[in-house]
Design goal:
single chain
Amino acid sequence: MNDTAIIKNINNIKLKEYDFIKILYNISIYVITAVLLFSGIAKIIDPFPLISTLKLITIIPESLQILIATLLPVVEIGLAILMLLKVKPQLTLTVVTILFAIFLIVSVYGTLAGFGTDCGCLPANV
């Protein structure tokens, strides 16, 4: 096999790896979009589990708890729509990453504090 054939094989492998990463990226975007839509709609339908969870976090004032419970589902659905339409994907993914990091921090805090409650992120039937 000559050098040209080897280079073509290497380029072909690189293209296949790139295609796999692109497919994995697109699947990830759709999964995250579905999670955001699903949880946002669930919180709009029944906001009380989220409000009760926010009340357990004593460092958040009550007026801010109501504001969070009102705006969070709208933000989640808005971010899902932006991701689906690929509007400013870099900025949208950065905001989603920050939002998920906040969710992780609150979840860890709730677990360590022993809350043991449902945040209303997903319907109870799931």
